[in-house]
Amino acid sequence: MSWRRLLGERQVEVPVPPAAGQTAAAARGVSLALGGRTVLDGVDVAVTAGEVLALVGPNGAGKSTLLSVLAADEQPDGGEVLIAGRWAAEWTAPELALRRAVLPQAATLSFPFTVADVVRMGRAPWAGTRAEDEDDAAVAEAMAATEVTRFADRPFSALSGGERARVALARVLAQRAPLLLLDEPTAALDLRHQELVLRVCTEQAAAGRAVVVVLHDLGLAAAYADRAAVLHEGRVAASGQPGEVFTEDLLSRVYQHPVEVLPHPVTGTRLVLPRRVG
Amino acid sequence: MTGTEHAPAPGAFPSAAAEEARREPPPRERPRARVLVRQTLLLTGLTSALVVMALVSASVGAYDIPLPDLLASVAHRLGAGGEPLDRVGESVLWDVRLPRVVLALLVGASLGCAGTLMQGVFGNPLAEPAVIGISPGAAVGAVAAIAFGLDFLGNWTLTVFAFLAGLGTVLIVYTLSRSGGRTEVVTLILTGIAVNAFAMALIGLFIFFADNAQVTQITFWQLGSLAQATWPTVLAVLPCAALGLLLAPAYARRLDLLALGERPARHLGVDVERLRLVLVLLVALLTAAAVAVAGVIGFVGLVVPHLLRMVAGPGHRFLIPAAALGGALVLLSADLFARTAAQPAELPLGVLTALLGSPFFFWLLRRTRNRQGGWA
Asked: Where is pLDDT greater, at B30 or A123?
């Protein structure tokens, strides 16, 4: 190990962002067991640059695990994972950081950094590259997009859960990676900010990025995702355009609860509602 | 069909938040600049205080050396004019006082820096080498070297033994107190208690086997003191301390990212495994340097980084050098007090820092509990 390597100095090669329609990440026949339980069982998904892919499904279906496999956090037991055209395991941590950004389910912070500091941490992968000049612009843009500019100088620990979630998203956006992997970005948010976050997702896709987002709200998925993959017991039960995939039969079976799917009276977007007695 | 069709256009519904944002334009630049100014002032202030304290420390004692004479002697030795003191004065200054001042600086800086690194690695502001058992662990190595009369590495023997034992202890504490990528306060403190108890038992065992002269040496050393300072002892710890202090700032940025958690840090390109390994090595180096010469001196690594964080924020690029300076200043002042307060006797330094540090630790525990609403 050379001296420079020990210090973690690195010569960074800035990647060329993938063209629209090019596969940004793919899992092929991925299987993974955690703690003796099969969490993923022969999963095939791919996300291309320029689209929003929603991962939906009941609790424990393997959505978050699939996301961490696509993020190269977990090594699958079987099958293969490609990120930016290369085997996931072949990338180093600094190389991956230029190619994918990940929003974890819960945002934590050990020390009272300010919101601006936290968002700026998203720029760390670009230190020492030409893209470093964009740091200020990327941070300001990400904070504006998630409406956290107001909190810039407050300590992260002083924010509410929903505010923290948006700051965490701002950090991920500031990273400006071509692949975004978001684990339940809307979980802690109110109605207005849920819409805001998914609008940000579609904007990111329109800008040529590939977005994979884990969602619980099927209505949001139907309204904003270009494609959806319904996970059920570690397998992909169906995938395709939400309008085709979200059927009463499939959803009732997967969620083990009767589900109604109605077209919106004005826009025609699918509305997914649980059937309630009485 | 794209969902954006029926999504409200931004600005179509001016929300309360947007209204508020418009009313008070975010004060972006000022606070950031203010923090930078404050950090610069603090670093300058600490450095000047350190220089003043070093001069005072070298001049005051059982044999007072007036400051002008002291400066003249220093200038003389540097070959820049001036004149030497009398024979006794010259010997007191150059063979007794100055090595002690330099040693206080090295040990204090090492402790402050080690505390900061440790808190960063554990993601926990209560981590400190003495509190969680690293210093006592290193002490076991040093006591073993004394008790068995080992000196096959000359002056370095004590330091090397302290380093190896310290390193072993950090690794043990680290593996025992972490679960699921997090270190809970309670687990960390309890692990510290267990490791401390075991270290004390080992030290007791070594004392039992030691002869009288060795027991006296061990006891004095255990209370924490810089009284044995000579140039050879300075030389014995210099490599460890210098290596640790020089390398630590290189990891500042990655320590900041580690505050997000291990996975997010990895997502931002940090090789977390390697970072942790290197930092644990550095902590062991710095702690060993301090413990080998001065025994267990607690709380410096806890109090100093904490106060600095409260004043100037948690960014490690500032915190690491500032904690080293602050630690040096605190230890230099404490040592001056320890050797002048009860002249001609000398208070044990470790006892003094523990007297001052323990109440602070207590306050910190209460504050952490109130903040987190429990011990989790």
From this structure: A123
Rg of chain B (C-alpha set) = 24
Residues of A in contact with B308 (CB under 8 A): none
Q: Is-contact A146 A169, C-beta < 8 A?
A: yes
> What CATH number does residue B280 fall under?
1.10.3470.10
Residue B101 amino acid letter? V
Residue of A nearest to B315 (CA): A113
ipTM: 0.90
Task: Please identify which residue in the block is written with the tokens 């924010």.
Answer: A159
Residue B193: CB atoms within 10 A of its CB come to 12
Whether residue B111 lies inside any domain: the answer is: no
**Mean pLDDT across the stretch B55-82?**
86
pLDDT at residue number B372: 53
Look at residues B134, B138, B141 and name the one whose alpha carbon lies nearest to residue B191. Answer: B134
Q: For residues B256 and B123, give the distance between their C-alpha atoms in angstroms, rounded to a whole number.
A: 10
pLDDT of residue B31: 65
pLDDT for the residue B182 = 65
Q: In angstroms, rounded to a whole number, what is the distance separating the alpha carbons of residues B292 and B146?
A: 11
User: Is there a domain that residue B305 lies in?
Assistant: yes
Find the mean pLDDT for residues A77-105. 93
Tokens read off for B337? 């007090």
Nearest-angstrom CA–CA distance, B348 and B219 = 11
Q: With an 8 Å Cβ cutoff, are B278 and A96 in contact?
A: no
Nearest-by-CA chain A residue for B185: A110
Is the CB of B267 less than 8 angstroms away from the CB of A111?
no
CA A114 to chain B, closest CA, distance in angstroms equals: 8
pLDDT, residue B371, reads 62
Does A116 contact B275 at a Cβ distance shorter than 8 Å? no
- Measured in whole angstroms, the distance separating CA A157 from the mean position of its chain's CA atoms is 23
- B85 is a domain residue: no
Burial of residue B343 (CB within 10 Å: 0-12, 13-18, 19+) is: exposed
Q: Answer yes or no: is B70 within a domain.
A: no
For residue B232, the enclosing domain spans: 117-376
- A237 CB-near residues (< 8 Å, 6+ apart): A57, A230, A231, A250, A253, A254
Q: Nearest 5°: phi and psi at A76?
A: -70, 150
Residue A74 has pLDDT above 80, yes or no: yes
Which residues, 6+ apart, have CB-to-CB distance to A218 below 8 Å?
Answer: A56, A246, A251, A272
Q: Say if the Cβ atoms of A100 and B4 lie within 8 Å.
A: no
Of B250, B245, B279, the closest CA to residue B262 belongs to B279
Q: Do A153 and B1 touch (CB under 8 A)?
A: no
Could you tell me whether strands A179-183 and B178-179 are parallel, antiparallel, or unpaired per DSSP bridges? unpaired
Cβ contact B157:B150 at 8 Å: yes
Q: Which two tokens stand for residue B36?
A: 């930078």
Q: To the nearest whole number, what is the mean pLDDT of chain B?
A: 83
Among B1, B28, B269, beta carbon nearest to A124:
B269
Residue A224 touches partner B, C-beta closer than 8 Å: yes
Domain count, chain B: 1
Residue B171, class by beta-carbon neighbours within 10 Å (0-12 exposed, 13-18 middle, 19+ buried)?
A: middle
